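Example 3.2
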Amino acid sequence: MRRVALILLLWVWAAAAHAHKPSDSYLGLSVEGNRIAGQWDIALRDLDFAVGLDADGNGEITWGEVRAKHREITAYALARLVIAVDGAACPISVKEHLIDNHSDGAYEVIRFDVDCPAVPQILSVKYTLFFDVDPQHRGLLRVEDQNGTHTAVFSPEHETWALENHAPALGRQFRDFFRTGVWHIWTGFDHILFLCALLLPAVVELRDGRWHAVATFRQAFLGVVGIVTAFTIAHSITLSLAVLGFIALPSRLIESTIAASVIIAASNNLWPLIEKRLWVVAFLFGLVHGLGFANVLTDLALPKTALAVSLVSFNLGVEAGQLAIVAAFLPLAYLSRRSWLYPRLAVGVGSLSIVAVASIWLIERSLDVNII
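Structure, written as tokens:
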């Protein structure tokens, strides 16, 4: 029982410091003959941590502060990117610096040309940006050539990518975005805490105003299956619609609503209003969580031909990561359910802690301020 409570409280403690979308950058390459044009979008908040953009320390990064650091940004970024043709590294020359807004904030945009000696038979990219300071960072690659669009995801475990004879590596693309989906749910503390809030009462039931242990594992398991299935169907619907361009809502609204959903789900454990059919809650709020998942793929701006594989594999990765969390949680919770501490510590203190953390998220996201 104490293990369950300790694990949950550790998750809550870690979540308080990770209220926003994980660190990503977006690298696009366009190949025409021996000419390669590139664009690299890097979050200002990440560059501020690495090279220090906020000169006056007021918490706001201005265009003047970014412009004053263009040389340092270029040196820092290009030292961590190697584009090679047939095994030989090609010189990279920066053309301009811009600022663009993504779903999660402002990004530095570096546009550059790559000087290649010949038409590439083997095009390779080595990417190590931020890996030394943030192992959770991911670089999302999009390469366009005469044969279509190719994608990949860079991580500390996968720093290199190669395209040989312009052949699309669909297997690698599937694996990359599957891993990204798993990583996204495992680092998405708001999604995890929402699930935990719904799963905590899965091994107990409310009778006469008090929590009692469920009689069988089957009863708990069926309740969890209903919740997870509803959440999966709901976020798969909105993830697909958002990535395909049918839904577009402001990121602040989405993230604020996700935080509110966590508060409502956890509060229901403390002051139960919905005792049965928690799958309905999971489905309704799962629709909003799907819009949060979509940010990774919508910011990459993939064409529909490359989007199908990425969307399916990313969504399957999210489901696999989600099932791993449930598989780790449910047996421990079930074995602890008869302890008198479970409803007090896990359900009571755990839910109260989740409400506290999600309330901080809601304030930060709705008012665009930093509390922690």
